[in-house]
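User: These chains co-purify. Model them together.
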Amino acid sequence: GAGVSQSPRYKVAKRGQDVALRCDPISGHVSLFWYQQALGQGPEFLTYFQNEAQLDKSGLPSDRFFAERPEGSVSTLKIQRTQQEDSAVYLCASSYLGTSVHNEQFFGPGTRLTVL
Amino acid sequence: GENVEQHPSTLSVQEGDSAVIKCTYSDSASNYFPWYKQELGKRPQLIIDIRSNVGEKKDQRIAVTLNKTAKHFSLHITETQPEDSAVYFCAATDYKLSFGAGTTVTVRA
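Assistant: Joint model of the two components:
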């Protein structure tokens, strides 16, 4: 079966532009996570969905960042008025079960965002 | 929140030798500790994980140990091969992953 997919793979935005990043998790996976990976660093948690419910958005760096998963499958991470410090790889991960049971998070290939 | 520290940041080993990467964590609530391998420009991939009720786990050339009292866990790779060259990340979690900063492993042929 297909793994986690993300689009676009690369995005170049001018400072101040809005961007939307898409994540298609593995079919049937309940949990969906977004992480931000700066160059040479480990991924950092942004937000978590269990089905369509956003249960944790504590990692979103500012109110310019917004995520949704309206039907409990595909998720979109939106960044408004992009800034240079938003340049990073945005990783999506999904896992089969909810938070009560630890299980592997499967990562997508990421979207590399460059803000000029 | 959870804070994970990882050492060393770079590691160069001769092919066939062993590699050891060490991590510490701060939150005693963390009870799942995965290790990910990430090749340049690619997605992180799980190579081994350990849960808090286990002290050691082995999968072929890879092993992980966990000391919950000391809040310390380690990755051991034996008989290293050139294809083991990559960045390795440890993580700790009660559900959301908190990653270490990564170790760049280079296996010299």
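The first strand of chain B starts at residue 4 and ends at 7.
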